[in-house]
Amino acid sequence: MSHRLFISLPFPNSFRQPVARVLGSVEAKLLPDIFRFVDPDLWHTTLLFLGDQEEENLADIVSAIQDAVDNFSGAFESVFEKIDYGPERSNPKMLWLWGSQALSQGLEELRDELQDSLIAYGVPFAPDNRRFTAHITLARLRQGFEGQARSKREKLLSLPEINKSLSVPALVDEIQLVESVLTPAGSEYTVFGTFQLGA
Question: Catalytic one among 86, 110, 135, 137?
Fold first, then answer.
């Protein structure tokens, strides 16, 4: 049996509530037939996607993650600082909560530590060496959105400016190994393990 796994940074209620309040004013501006908003309980930052993993790999994955967090410099705090389209305004596919440059840098270092450890344990996955952009996906372009190309283009080009500034502290003190199951209603997540940074 295989499991579709990723490693993520979770967020507590104390983080989600102030973001949700600001998001309310943004949500009212967007066309409901184009964007589908993500349940705040599912908000997370994906550090590393591991893809489909066989049951026999799980023990090595858990050990690799534990070694990585033990070797990491420890917990740190940074901020998320704006709500805007992602990955770019010229081709909006999602609505993101964007992290600061310092947060992106810290999470990139953590991602690289995780990758090195997984490789050392021989876990099969596709390493990601791109520059890391810290973000949380707040909404996605609806997959069922169809129509004439001109109509779709016109709607996308008519999207309102968002670029909503805010400053929400984020404590990076734990990460999770999560299974994702795709359903017609969206992704369902099951946490396989939680790991404390520097513990």
Answer: 135
